[in-house]
Design a protein that fits this description.
Length: 104
C-alpha cells in the first residue's frame, strides 16, 4: 500500500496516524484509573492497536525514506552520466521560473 501513495499522500497519512496515536494515548491515560473487565479488555485492545499503528507508521516512514534515497541516487547518477544535459535542464527550468515570476 505504501508504494502506491504519493509523497503528499504519505505525509498526510503520517500526520493523520500521528494524530490518531496521540489521541488514543491521551484517552488511555485518561482512563488509566478506570476499573472493570470490559474497560481493561478495551484498553488492552487499544494498546495493541496503537502498537500496530506505530509499526505501520514506521514502515511508511521507512518506505518513503528509501524511495527518496533511490530518487536522489537516480538523479545523481543521471547528472554524472549526462552533465551537459543536467545543465541544460537546469537552465530551462531557471528560464521558465524567471518567466513565471516576471509575469506576476
Amino acid at each position: 500500500m505504501a508504494e502506491s501513495l504519493t509523497s503528499g499522500g504519505r505525509e498526510q497519512l503520517a500526520a493523520e496516524m500521528k494524530s490518531i496515536i496521540a489521541d488514543a494515548e491521551e484517552l488511555l491515560k485518561a482512563t488509566a484509573s478506570a476499573t472493570g473487565d470490559r474497560i481493561m479488555a478495551a484498553r488492552a485492545r487499544a494498546e495493541e492497536s496503537l502498537k500496530a499503528a506505530r509499526e505501520r507508521l514506521s514502515n511508511v516512514d521507512d518506505a518513503a525514506m528509501a524511495q527518496m534515497k533511490e530518487v536522489a541516487k537516480s538523479a545523481d547518477d543521471y547528472v554524472r552520466e549526462h552533465p551537459w544535459g543536467a545543465v541544460g535542464i537546469a537552465a530551462v527550468a531557471g528560464l521558465l521560473l524567471g518567466v513565471m515570476i516576471s509575469r506576476r
